Amino acid sequence: MSTLTVPAQVPSVTEDCEQLRKAFEGWGTNEQLIISILAHRNAAQRKLIRQTYADTYGEDLLKSLDKELTNDFERVVMLWTLDPAERDAFLANEATKRWTSSNQVLMEIACTRSSKQLLEARQAYHARFKKSLEEDVGYHTNGDFRKLLLPLVTAYRYEGDEVNITLAKSEAKILHEKISNKTYNDEDLIRILATRSKAQINATLNQYKNVYGNDIDQDLEADPKDEYLDLLRATVQCLVRPEHYFEKILRLAINKQGTDEGALTRVVTTRAEVDLKVIKDEYQRRNSVPLDRAVVKDTSGDYEKMLLALLGHGDA
Amino acid sequence: MAEIEALIKAFSGHGVDEKTVISILGNSQPEHRQAFRKEGGFFAEDERRFERWNDHHVKLLKHEFMRFKNAVVLWAMHPWERDARLIKEALKKGPNSNSVIVEIASTRSSDELLGARKAYHSLFEHSIEEDVASHIHGKEKKLLVALVSAYRYEGPKIKEDVAKSEAKALISAVKNAEKQNPIENDEVVRILSTRSKPHLKSVFKHYKEIAGQHFEDELDVHLILQAAVQCLITPQSYFSRVLDEAMRDGADKNTKKGLTRVLVTRADVDIRAISDDYRNHYAIPLADKIEAKAKGSYKEFLLTLMARGS
């Protein structure tokens, strides 16, 4: 569930644009004003604001934001203002240019979005980068990582609830066999995770547990230092328990020495309109402290205020 | 006798010459039909002393009568449903039809292929990629799954230096064919399934310059790989070849279907270019070949599709 709070009486788009323009005027920037508007508008409203702002002032709102804001605060506002498909395309493109930890971002986008959302991200990628997502992923990854990531980012999974139990049983068997043999990059193993519907995968993993006793997660823990295995485990989690995955990412980001703002910003902006409420509940359950409080402890200034607003903390 | 010959002719080829069948068979007396049963070759003498339809021939006739109906149904269909159904059928038919999957995945625009994937969800409650991945087992599996999953960028922009280095990667894969079949080579699959078509055209241009010969002239390259490359960079040549093979004497059941499939799926797209390519390659206008090999309503339907708007 979404954590976004939008006021009952939303000002007109023109008013929002005027206020935002005012926030940029003069020497400083009125960050609080920016937060009070943008952090309380949904994707459709933000899109309209961007369009109207560009029509009225001849400049992309994002450009103005870039000129006026800096650092973590700028990034969280920028990512938030983008519409979800563009945001995913932006994050994916960034991930192809970085090092290995960003394989996780690619997998996260590919596996936690709906088929339609992933597709829209691919379309936004064409428009913005004049290339396909898959050609960049293919070019910038290699070995087992590529074997896993390419099928994941090009998937267009069926989204129905129908489940074939016989198939689930036979594919659970295949998974178990490959994992027992430690052939984690096996074609069939990857095929199952990359092409089956999420409902079918869920059924398969239930069969796995029923028949073999362990959660597949436990069986994939063979080598804690193996990055590929890490990615594989995270893939499974993203496909069937995304809220657990995101809770973990947040926990690690916050507990890390100095905080991983990149991860924190990414999770909050990409999930605020999707399931951040569920993730918050999971965070509280797992860490015995509300996510809001952890964010307050770990971040500061306008960055903190923006995150809290997106987390639905307090009132507008 | 001339009439029996004419009748046999009316039944052989693509489709059925209904007018001839009506005028000869429809006007026949019992003794004429008996002569046809004795001479035609469609019947065999049963042990109980009557000429009995050869089951195999009845089946063949059924296909020929259905050709027109199938063409009409396919033509009226939404292109997305059409492509989804063609892929499903190809998967059911087995490895010999894998080229149809390559054809659809590689000759359609990005949005057309996407549409086929959507329609496939609705029609079959699975994704194309999961069915292709679970039903295909040969060396071509990796490539096929990757091809049906593509959503290629469609702009004209290409990076020549990247194209050149990718041409080199292909050359290297072909040189190493003994150790690993190029169709299973990860780089080959990546390049063919992710790059834009303009980029690929450039890649294969560099291939020719560096290797000294066209990729399609390389020996020992898996036919499916050749087909994929042809579909991606010179689809009209690919289609005119499929048409020619379909109309050859003795073509098998599946190959014959190429005639309907290509005409129906390309009539709104590039049938004229395919026609031109056909004439250049096979020295006879496509329409003339169809006139010679196809029969009856089926023939007229195909020729009408081709002639529209000209």
Automatic annotation (TrEMBL), chain A:
GO terms for cellular component: cytoplasm; plasma membrane. The keyword Transferase does not apply. InterPro entries: Annexin (IPR001464), Annexin_repeat (IPR018502), Annexin_repeat_CS (IPR018252), Annexin_sf (IPR037104), AnnexinD_plant (IPR009118). Keywords: Annexin, Calcium, Calcium/phospholipid-binding, Metal-binding, Repeat. One of its GO terms (biological process) is response to water deprivation. Gene3D superfamilies: Annexin. It holds the Pfam family Annexin. One of its GO terms (molecular function) is calcium-dependent phospholipid binding. Ca(2+) 1 binds at F24, G26, G28, E68, I254, K256, G258, V296, T299, E304. Ca(2+) 3 binds at D298. Belongs to the annexin family. A pair of annexin repeats may form one binding site for calcium and phospholipid. This is Annexin.
TrEMBL record, chain B:
GO terms for cellular component: cytoplasm; plasma membrane. One of its GO terms (molecular function) is calcium-dependent phospholipid binding. It comes from the Eukaryota. SMART domains: ANX. Ca(2+) binds at F11, G13, G15, E64, G250. Pfam families: Annexin (PF00191). PROSITE patterns: ANNEXIN_2 (PS51897). Keywords: Annexin, Calcium, Calcium/phospholipid-binding, Metal-binding, Repeat. GO terms for biological process: response to abscisic acid; response to cold; response to heat; response to salt stress; response to water deprivation. InterPro entries: Annexin, Annexin_repeat, Annexin_sf, AnnexinD_plant. It comes from Citrus clementina (Clementine). This is Annexin.
